[in-house]
Amino acid sequence: MKIGNIDLGERPVMLAPMEDVTDESFRLICKELGADMTYTEFVSADALIRNIQATTRKLTISDAERPTAIQIYGKEVAPMVEAAKIVEEAGPDVLDINFGCPVKKVAGKGAGAGMLRNIPLMLEITSAVVKAVNLPVTVKTRLGWDHDSKIIVELAEQLQDCGIQALTVHGRTRSQLYSGAADWEMIARVKENPRLNIPVIGNGDITTPEAALEAFTRYGVDGVMVGRASIGCPWVFHDISRALKGLPSQELSVAEKFNLLRRQIRESVSRIDEYRGILHIRRHLAASPLFKGIPDFRQTRIAMLQADNLDELNNILDKVENEILPAIVK
C-alpha cells in the first residue's frame, strides 16, 4: 500500500491519532513494536495559527518514528490552509485532515465529524488544503452523521476528486460515538467501489490479530488503523504485526510489558514535568490490560491513579509486578 510515494508494504497497521494519547514517546514505542505508520494527536488549526505552545508541541516528530502523519482539524477554509502550511514546515510525511472526531467540543462546533453535516464545506476545505501543500493529504472520517445519513460511499469519491491520496474510514456514525459495533460491511462497500482508486484504511474495533486479519481477508481494506486498543497496551502492535506477517504468536512477557509502561512514564515526565507527565500517563495506566482481572485490586488501582510523583507511582508498580501478580500466578 502506498500513500503518495510512501510505501507502507503489504497489510500495514497504523496507530490512530488520539488526543492526549499519541504523543511522541507513545508513537515511537508503537513503531518499535510493529506499527507501520503513526499519527500525531489531532491539532487545532485555530490554535496552531495562534501559536499556542501546547498545540505547537504536537508537531514534534522524530526520524525514528517515521512515516508519521500530522492531523489537523478546523471548520473554516482559511485557517485550515494556513495551518496546513505550518504543518508542512514541521516536516511530516503525510498531512491528515480530521473529519471524524465525534466529541461535542469538536463536532458540536462544526469541526471533526461535524463536517459530515456540511459536505460542501468539507470538500472546499479538502481541496484548498491539497492545493496549499506539497505533502500527500489524507482524510479520516466516519460513515455519516447518523444512521439515516450513511453517505460514506459517495463521500469517498468526492474526497478522492479533491485530491486526497488515502482515506481512513471509522466504521461508526458520529451519533454512535464509540458505542455499538463498527460496521465493516460499510467499509467494504467503500473499498469495493470501482470508481475509487485511493487506498482505504479501515478503523474501528481492531483489538486483536484476528480482527486485523479479518479486515484484510474478508473486507478487503488496504490498511488497518488501531486506536483505543493500544491505550495502555502498545504491544498490541507486536501481536497484530506478527499475525499479519504470518509469524507464530509470541506474546511479550509481563516484565516486558511493565517495562514499556515504565518507559512511557519516564518519557512523559521528561517531556513535560513530573506532575503533569504523570497526569498525562494515567489514561494509559487506567486502560492497561495488565491490571485487569486482579482480584481485590480496587484500592491499589485508586492509589496508582492518584499517585502524583514518580517514587510513589514506581513503588506501587513494583508491588504489583513483584508481589501481587506472582501471588496470583501461584
Topology:
Elements: E1 2-3, E2 6-7, E3 13-15, H1 24-33, E4 37-39, E5 43-44, H2 45-49, H3 53-56, E6 68-73, H4 77-90, E7 94-99, H5 104-107, H6 119-132, E8 137-142, H7 152-162, E9 167-170, H8 184-192, E10 200-203, H9 209-217, E11 223-226, H10 236-244, H11 254-271, H12 274-287, H13 298-306, H14 310-329
Helix pairs in contact: 4-6, 6-7, 7-8, 9-10, 11-12, 11-14, 13-14
Short key terms for the protein model shown above:
330 residues; alpha/beta; 8-stranded parallel beta barrel; two-stranded antiparallel ribbon; 14 helices; 11 strands; 13% strand; globular
Could you explain how this protein is built, in words?
The structure is a single chain. This protein is an alpha/beta fold and 330 residues long. The chain folds into two domains: 2-244, Aldolase class I (TIM Barrel, Alpha-Beta Barrel), CATH 3.20.20.70; 254-329. Helices cover 45% and strands 13% of the residues. The protein is built from 14 helices and eleven strands. It has helices spanning 24-33, 45-49, 53-56, 77-90, 104-107, 119-132, 152-162, 184-192, 209-217, 236-244, 254-271, 274-287, 298-306, 310-329; strands at residues 2-3, 6-7, 13-15, 37-39, 43-44, 68-73, 94-99, 137-142, 167-170, 200-203, 223-226. α9 (209-217) links the parallel β10 (200-203) and β11. The radius of gyration is 20 Å and the shape is globular. The mean pLDDT is 96.
